[in-house]
Design goal:
Blueprint (H helix, E strand, L loop, with lengths): L2 H19 L7 H16 L4 H25 L4 H15 L2 H16 L3 H7 L13 H48 L11 H25 L3 H11 L8 H12 L3 E7 L2 E8 L9 H28 L5
Antiparallel strand pairs: 1-2
């Protein structure tokens, strides 16, 4: 079994483990990393970009180096490398937890329990749910499913194909740091700058592959392609708009518009402006599309991993 084949097999096993078991409920390695990164932030914090860049380099570099050492320790044990790749893939992927959370909120909406849906929404995204009605919550869920399909599934698989388990785990470290310090709060505006920019770079390929695969999996690929190519770059994020616009076209719904994050209000461009508003039923449709995109991404990246690394061992 060649090295690329070992990783490809491991990524398939890890993906299936995520489908079957979702994220571990206790002792999740990402939570352990988050705690360590927070402690380091407390020790290093200064209102300075350079110090934030050091924090990002230590956290991400430490994860990548540790994973590379573990992979090297396995030597030529192909079964061991495949098992390590499976464990890393399961650790990093979050597709099942994403759709499970989205469906929970959708269930509350279908039951007419707006209070429960509002209480649950912060588990999925950072918006202030207090003033959102049923349609606005449904739209927030669909947008979060689209964006996080790229972050929690496709990007991770891409970086695994390119750099093996160290790439998988380093990407999750980058994405986690961005969520922790990459926002524009007074404390993190400068300190989190490096984490936010690195996340933009790391998320670039997966966002675009997500959009392509969403178009391929859409009932009307032409509409999805049209909305993506027209509206994808109008979003303030260099990556989120790619996935969201493709999902908008694939689902035939209108996304974007005014959003509220605590006291901060954002007026974002509308994606798929000629399409209909989101309804509660679109939450389930978005989850199904996310799973199709994830499965397609697994196939593409597993083949790519085997091909890219077939001559390396």
């Amino acid at each position: 079994m060649r090295r690329g084949t070992a990783f490809a097999l491991g990524s398939v096993v890890g993906y299936l483990a995520d489908v079957r078991f979702a994220d571990p409920r206790r002792g999740h390695p990402v939570a352990v990393f988050g705690s360590a990164a927070h402690r380091l932030e407390q020790a290093l914090w200064r209102d300075h970009r350079g110090v934030g860049a050091l924090h990002t380099a230590v956290c991400v570099g430490g994860v990548a180096a540790g994973a590379a050492l573990a992979e090297r320790a396995l030597g030529r044990r192909k079964a061991g490398r495949a098992l390590f790749a499976a464990a890393a893939t399961w650790t990093v992927l979050g597709g099942t937890s994403l759709t499970r959370e989205a469906r929970t909120i959708g269930g509350h909406l279908r039951a007419g329990d707006l209070t429960a849906a509002r209480e649950r929404l912060p588990h999925l995204c950072g918006r202030d749910p207090s003033g959102l009605d049923e349609a606005q919550i449904a739209r927030a869920v669909v947008e979060s499913v689209a964006e996080n399909t790229a972050d929690a599934v496709v990007n991770a698989l891409i970086w695994g194909a390119l750099a093996g388990a160290p790439g998988l785990l380093a990407f999750r470290a980058v994405n986690t740091l961005d969520a922790m310090v990459g926002h524009r709060s007074p404390r993190h505006l400068r300190f989190g700058w490096a984490a936010a920019r690195l996340d933009d770079v790391a998320g670039w390929p997966g966002a675009r592959l997500t959009a392509l695969l969403a178009c391929a999996a859409a009932p009307s690929p032409g509409t999805a392609w049209k909305v993506w190519r027209r509206d994808g770059s109008s979003h303030p994020s260099p990556n989120a708009g790619q996935a969201e616009s493709a999902f908008a076209g694939a689902l035939g719904v209108r996304l974007g518009g005014t959003l509220q994050y605590g006291e901060r209000v954002e007026h974002r461009p509308v994606l798929g402006g000629e399409l209909r508003p989101v309804t509660v039923d679109d939450v389930e449709r978005a989850c199904q599309l996310s799973r199709r995109v994830g499965a397609l991404a697994l196939g593409v990246t597993a083949v790519a991993a085997a091909m890219l690394r077939r001559n390396k061992g």
